[in-house]
Amino acid sequence: MDGKTKTLIHGLSASEFAAALAALGEPAFRAKQIWKWLYVQRVDDWAAMRNVPATLREKLAGSYSLEPVRRLEVDGEATGTRKILVGLGDGECVEEVLIPAGDRMTVCVSSQVGCRFACVFCASGKSGFVRNLESGEMVGQVLLAFREHGDRPSNIVFMGMGEPFDNYEAVLKAIRILNDQEGLLIGARHITISTSGVIPGIERLAGEGIQVELSVSLHAPDNDLRDQLMPVNRRYPLKDLMEACQRYVAGTRRIITFEYTLIGGVNDSRRQAEALARLLKPLPARVNLIPLSPVDGYLGEAPAPQVADMFIQVLEQAGINVTLRASKGGEIEAACGQLRRRHVKAGSVGEAAGS
Ligand code: SAH
Predict the structure, then answer these.
(1) DSSP string of 159-190, one letter each residue
(2) Which residue lies with its CA nearest to atom 24 of ligand 1?
(3) Residue 162 Cα, ligand 1 centroid: separation in angstroms?
(4) pLDDT in the model for residue 325
(5) Is the N end or the C end of the chain the one with fewer CB atoms within 10 Å?
(6) Binning pLDDT at 50, 70 and 90, where does residue 338 land?
């Protein structure tokens, strides 16, 4: 890989790319031509851009990297959920997950190396925060998934490592690149941003005029428990968060999905289900229940299936649309951050560097 010395070409928006080529004295059609090689043919070699003059290809190759990320390791079966350990130019790594369902292929991408938010049951925060991903590294994960799957992913979810709203600009730029009509053409409605509840991010997204889906991770219906599970709640407590969600829904006319990881004996009682239903009552909301995936360093467990059923029933009776995520990834450590942790513990992160 080209490491840090070159700019990731996949991190340029269509207009930035057009401006960069214009600055090199190239005609306007050239930018569109190369953009197609990047996102329609998805080549990983300058020489493959046959209709681009060799002198220009050489010039571009001197400043830009065509390989934003690389595939280091894959876990799981080709027919089921697959998890990829993704190597970055500076030797760091993140994870992405490919989740097939019927004729859909959802790709779960990371937005940061590590995470600052330290939710107690999440592996991503356990090794702390390292750095933000660049837009090109997020677009690169989607291109890698495209290659691995052999087709265009149908859905992209920013539910890998990191807090997307802690890297707001780069995430939004990556989404605009993925969304480009003459490029990858992944519809905004097929892209989901998941936040732990960073209110300024929710407010900013409402003003973007972009049709992406928003998920908010709740995990508890009251401040006491949410403070314990998610330190972010001390900064953005539930009342303020729910008010921000109401403003988002009113301003965008979009529905929010609330994620709620079910942890046996911690947040899965009937009373908590009722409290959650009351909390969500003012909103048109969906709830996605996620049985806890076991994580090193956290003792909790997923509840028994009949407890999850009771929880679903209470929410449904309150008129809330509920889904229970099948815990497919458990066996392959699909709760993000775990494959990377294993890799870091084995001391192999440095070795993955720039070779
Ligand atoms: N920072 C974003 C994205 C995180 S990952 C956010 O907090 O929303 C997506 C979801 O998986 C979040 O709801 C997160 O809390 C949840 N999650 C993390 N670790 C988990 C685990 N071990 N089991 C079940 N869900 C988990």
Answers:
(1) -SSS-GGGGHHHHHHHHHHHH-TTTT---GGG
(2) 292
(3) 9
(4) 84
(5) C
(6) low
338 vs 102: CA distance, rounded Å:
26
**Atom 18 of ligand 1, nearest CA residue:** 122
> Is the separation of the CB atoms in 153 and 146 below 8 Å?
yes
Ligand 1 pocket member 112 (CB < 6 A): no
In this predicted structure, the answer to whether residue 106 has a pLDDT above a threshold of 90 is yes
What is the pLDDT, as a whole number, of residue 326? 73
What's the whole-model pTM score? 0.93
Mean pLDDT on 275-299: 94
Mean pLDDT within 189-193: 98
Q: Where do the domains of the chain lie?
A: 7-65, 70-351
The predicted pLDDT at position 337 comes to 61
Amino acid letter, 235: R
Percent of the chain with pLDDT over 90: 86
**pLDDT band for position 352 (cuts 50, 70, 90):** very low
Rounded alpha-carbon distances, angstroms, from residue 33 to 28, 50, 60, 220: 9, 10, 14, 50
CA 121 – CA 230 distance, rounded (Å): 9
Residue whose Cα lies nearest atom 7 of ligand 1: it is 196
Name the CATH superfamily housing domain 70-351.
Answer: Aldolase class I (3.20.20.70)
Distance CA 355, CA 352 (A): 7
Q: Taking the domain 7-65, which CATH number applies?
A: 1.10.150.530
* Annotated catalytic residue 122: no
Q: How far apart are CA 347 and CA 351, in angstroms?
A: 8
Q: Is 95 a catalytic residue?
A: yes
Mean per-residue pLDDT for 11-23?
Answer: 97
From the CB of 292, is ligand 1 less than 6 Å away? yes
Going by C-alpha positions, the residue among 18, 6, 66, 47 that lies closest to residue 180 is 18
State the closest ligand 1 atom to the C-alpha of 217, by its place in the atom list counted from 1. 13
CA within 13 Å, CB half, 250: 8
Length of the chain: 355
**261 within ligand 1 shell (Cβ under 6 A):** yes
Query: From the CB of residue 306, how many other CB atoms can be counted at a distance below 10 Å?
Result: 8
Greatest mean pLDDT among 120-129, 136-145, 324-333: 136-145
